[in-house]
Design goal:
340 residues; 10 strands; alpha/beta; 8-stranded parallel barrel; globular
């Protein structure tokens, strides 16, 4: 275990170089950054474009499928309506001014318009929680999700096929070879992470969750020579020790999971072997970063506390740490530390 003094020194380094802990840009999998939980919440940002302005490297969207209206709704707890800060804006000039509470398609429109204003922004991960899962039979499955993202964002999405590079037979093989590009080369790019939702997980009649469904989707697309259609990376949800894929998925789809997502305190306090994620160049998202002992504010800690927490969880091999720190400045939320 690294000593506290080393962690504090790393914290000072992060704060002292204007939000980037190294002069040259690290590879995507060799950095630790900061994300914002539920960034679509109007209490956090008036408009989703402001969440994009925040400097955060990960922004979360909660999505419900509504097969009656054939819509992807964005909301925390209302499956029948939109409740979010995404606006009816499709051009840069319309941002920060239009009606909010729009569907996922409009959120993607906002992202596309914002991207025109900031074409050289650092890579941003969108963590999409499919609250009730997909509904492929109702026309809102993985294929339709891919189509929507592709239509709205096009080449600005870094996709599974980009990691494969026409060279590797699976995402696992590509990650282990550290085929990830540098952060600098991912300027102007977005990545999508998919996780199963809380409603889906609580449904006793649903045994085919988002992660498995999209994992099967990737496997099938690759087998059909159509992997370029896929727009997202499914994540293994929940902190675990060792490789959690072995107990959750069939052998055929395990190699299609290189994103992992779990509670920071569970990883750290239980002494889990997080070096395994870094060694294999997997993308590890640690949530509720404020809750790791010693706990700090989950909404507005000091800049020094954020820097120290970033350094601590970077030493535990996180790729992104998340919390509800939307009140912090872009200079803080855009901080980048060396992983491991």
């Amino acid at each position: 275990m690294r000593r506290v003094a080393a962690l504090l020194g790393a914290a000072v380094m992060v704060m002292g170089v204007g939000g980037n802990a190294r002069a040259a840009g690290p590879d995507f999998a060799d950095a630790t950054t900061i994300g914002t939980h539920n960034a679509y919440d109007k209490a956090k940002y008036t408009y989703f474009a402001q969440a994009l302005d925040s400097g955060a490297s990960l922004l979360e969207l909660d999505v419900y499928v509504n097969s009656l209206t054939h819509r992807w709704r964005v909301s925390h707890s209302n499956p029948l309506g939109n409740d979010n800060n995404c606006e009816a804006a499709k051009t840069p000039g319309e941002l920060y001014s239009k009606a909010r509470n729009q569907d996922l398609g409009s959120c993607l429109d906002n992202i596309a318009a914002w991207n025109q204003l900031h074409p050289d922004h650092p890579p941003i991960v969108f963590k999409v929680e499919m609250k009730v899962g997909f509904n492929a039979k109702g026309g809102l499955g993985p294929n339709e999700f891919d189509t929507l993202v592709s239509q709205k964002l096009g080449s600005s999405v870094y996709k599974p096929a980009d990691l494969l590079g026409g060279t590797y037979p699976s995402l696992d093989a590509a990650a282990k070879a550290n085929a990830w590009p540098s952060r600098d080369s991912l300027k102007g790019k977005f990545l999508f992470e998919l996780i199963p939702g809380t409603v889906e997980q609580a449904n006793p009649f649903d045994h085919y969750w988002t992660d498995q469904e999209y994992g099967d989707h990737l496997h099938d697309l690759y087998a059909a020579g159509k992997i370029a259609q896929a727009q997202a990376f499914p994540a293994v949800l929940g902190a675990a020790n060792g490789d959690p894929r072995t107990s959750r998925y069939d052998a055929s789809i395990r190699p299609w999971f290189v994103f992992f997502d779990g509670d920071a305190a569970t990883y750290v306090n239980n002494g889990y072997d997080t070096a395994w994620y870094d060694t294999n160049h997997y993308f590890l998202i640690m949530t509720d970063a404020a809750g790791v002992s010693p706990a700090i504010s989950s909404t507005n800690p000091t800049d020094a506390e954020v820097a120290a927490r970033l350094a601590l969880l970077a030493s535990h091999d996180a790729s992104v740490i998340t919390s509800d720190w939307s009140a912090k400045s872009a200079s803080v939320l855009s901080s980048v530390a060396d992983r491991g």
